[in-house]
Design goal:
By secondary structure, the protein is an alpha/beta fold. Helix content is 55%, strand content 15%. It has one domain: Rossmann fold (3-Layer(aba) Sandwich). It is built from ten helices and seven strands. It has a five-stranded parallel β-sheet with strand order 2-5-1-6-7, with helices on both faces.
Length: 192
Amino acid sequence: MLSIGLTGGIGSGKSVVAQIFRTLGIPVLDADALAKRIMQEDPEVKASILQCFGEKAYQDNKLNRAYLADIVFKDPFQLQVLNAIVHPATIAAGKEWANKQQAPYTIKEAALFFESGSAEGMDKIIGVYAPDAIRIQRVMQRDKISREEVLNRMNHQISQTVKMRLCDYVVMNDEQQLLIPQILKIHEELSR
């Protein structure tokens, strides 16, 4: 069984592409959701976050995402600290999940595939591309945050141009080209 990565910058439309693959019967793991669950439930990860970011990192025993985001998206070093805590546990849980699946291939969806080292061990990587203006608008609407906050988050990811060059396939999600025919072509190749 092939292990396929699905990545793209914030607001590129990874989740929409992932849902189309799910509709085709392909198991898809949302690594970002898995990481959030691990930060909430894994005792070792939680202890490390508390040690590095203080008691405010959890409110009423729940991860204080706004507090952490405010810290890590303003300080690249703090983002590295958080990633060093969370990424190894997420990568291990993703491998465990993939080993339980029954399909010609599985997809692991993650925004920070190359940044986290998660690309290692993947057979192929699919990138989702969208122009920056579209991405900014999508994230502002989805997360109810300012343009400045979106740009700050985008600046903590490798550039889309570099990311897409590292991918084996690129899905154009620019609101000009249809997604389904692009995804069906990739699905057909991966199912051989």
